[in-house]
Amino acid sequence: MSTNNDISIYWIRNDLRISDNLALLKSSEFNNVIPIFILDNVNSEENNLGGASRWWLHNSLKKLNSKFDNKISFYKGDPIQIFKDIEKKLELNAVFWNRSYEPWSIERDKKIKKYLTDKNIKVYSYNSSLLWEPTEILKSDKTPYKVFTPFYRKGCLVHSEPRLPRENANLNHLIKDENNIMTINSLGLLDKFNWYENFDNHWNVGEEGALEKLQIFLSDGLDGYKNGRNFPMKQNVSQLSPHLHFGEISPNKVWYESNKYKKIYSEKDVSHFQSELAWREFSYYLLFHFPHIINENLQSKFDNFEWDNNLQNLERWKKGETGYPIIDAGMRELWNTGYMHNRVRMIVGSFLVKNLLLHWKSGERWFWDCLVDADLASNTASWQWVAGTGADAAPYFRIFNPVTQGVKFDPQGEYIKKHVPELKDLDIKYLYSPWEASTQELEKANIFLGQNYPHPIIDLKDSRNKALENFSNL
Predict the structure, then answer these.
(1) Separation between Cα atoms, residue 458 and residue 237, nearest integer Å
(2) pLDDT (tens digit per residue) in 347-383
(3) Percent of the chain, pLDDT > 90?
């Protein structure tokens, strides 16, 4: 493919790993490979990275650059212009990248590919982040699926097995572009206000951290996954989502490593875990085929829904000061760790949309800024699901009760007490609804409603009835 003087570029995106990285692997067939990273803060518009994502990216890039012997060249700005500048300085033969599936990145990449090919520079792109290409899974009438189960069972599983993971790339051909003087710190990823100071205690960012997290889950969490995954204090969640989002591990690696346990654990647990990987695929699939869902309801009838606009309630939800312990625990976990258990995400999402009657987009934006696994496809699809406005969504009239959900999925109150420590001494009988406790019970636990823990900001029954009334008016 190449001669001694040939130069290729490997464009790093959300593929911050060496193993099973098709673009990196193929680029290494050239004798001289310049790895570059571009912080695109132009084309993404309102979807520029949130604060938690920037923290993760900063740390992951540092680790990858160390693996690359500090040979990554860093850029910030519009990739189209940056490639034009690079092309004028270097005699490029080829550019390699792994595909992105956000609408804005697809349009950007088309423009870059046209520019480079017009200059007789070859462009090679690969799917290194999804198990199945969104273009290849269609119904018999050639239209895209909108319901998960047929998408997965009739589409994905019938179409093909996911490709096998590939070997590690050879890094001996990497060279540094000496014209580039920008550093990781120059990208300005870290907020000046160090609100993420506790994140280091919860995450081992990078490829090694991803592989470690996978092994811990396979050993300790996959057995009993199907039922245990709903309980926030159990170990039956992988917490691989940020590692998958930033491409520190491939879904193919996760799929085939979990496959090995079908004869060790219950096949139902393994299959259910793999179906959750497929939900991630479904989110990307929906984003690819229905890109308007970023800002618009997939079910357009909800465009006429009567939302509230109580910004004070929104702020109290964000801060975990709603007076509903399971809600407050989830929102505080999010702020302090950059993560929230999936079951709790559904509970706090339902509360925002169906009790506070706030538009799902306001919750999606907060999650976008605070989650280390903030992912445009998954975040959008999940919020539209819980709001009842999306594909295969929970019916709008399915409204999670935060009290009964807390009792069911945090039966010992460990999760609430961990994240809402002011309630740790309250009798379990009242832990999920402190307002029902007598003044004597509250004082015994050193709780003074309205002072060191809030009264409920809304009545569950009244707000539920209001939501159903608004829904019936559609």
Answers:
(1) 31
(2) 999 999 999 999 999 999 999 999 999 999 999 999 9
(3) 92
pLDDT tens-digit map of 243-271: 999 999 999 999 999 999 999 999 999 99
DSSP designation for 93: -
Secondary structure of 199-260 as H, E, C letters: HHHCCCCCHHHHHHHHHHHHHHCCCCHHHHCCCCCCCCCCCCHHHHHCCCCCHHHHHHHHHC
Q: Nearest-CA neighbor of 431 among 443, 416, 452?
A: 416
Q: What are the C-alpha distances in Å from 50 to residues 55, 265, 296, 367, 372? A: 9, 38, 20, 9, 9
Overall fold of domain 130-169+205-289: 1.25.40
C-alpha to C-alpha distance for 336 and 196, rounded to whole angstroms: 7
Rounded to whole angstroms, how far apart are CA atoms 248 and 337? 19
Domain pair 7-127 / 300-472, same fold: no
Can you give the residue ranges of every domain in the chain?
7-127, 130-169+205-289, 300-472
Task: Give me 452's structure tokens.
Answer: 């060191």
Buried b (16+ CB within 10 A) or exposed e, 299-335: beebeebeeeeeeebbebbbebbbbbbbbbbbbbbbb
| Structure token pair of residue 214 | 């996978």
Domain 300-472 has CATH 3.30.450.40: no
For residues 21 and 97, the answer to whether their CB atoms sit within 8 Å is no
Residue 216 to residue 227: CA distance in whole angstroms: 18
Report the CATH fold assignment for 7-127.
Rossmann fold (3.40.50)
How far, in Å, CA of 86 to CA of 154, rounded?
45
HEC-encoded secondary structure of 432-445: CCHHHCCHHHHHHC
pLDDT, mean of residues 146-172: 95
For residue 170, what are the CA distances in angstroms to 67, 93, 122, 166, 430?
12, 19, 21, 12, 59
With H, G, I as helix, E, B as strand and everything else as coil, classify residue 368.
helix
Q: Which residue has the tokens 């099973």?
A: 20
- Whole-angstrom Cα distance, residue 137 to residue 144? 7
DSSP 8-state assignment for residue 45: G
Report pLDDT for 1: 46
pLDDT grade for 409, boundaries at 50, 70 and 90: very high
Better pLDDT: 46 or 178: 178
First to last CA, the chain: 60
Length of the chain: 474
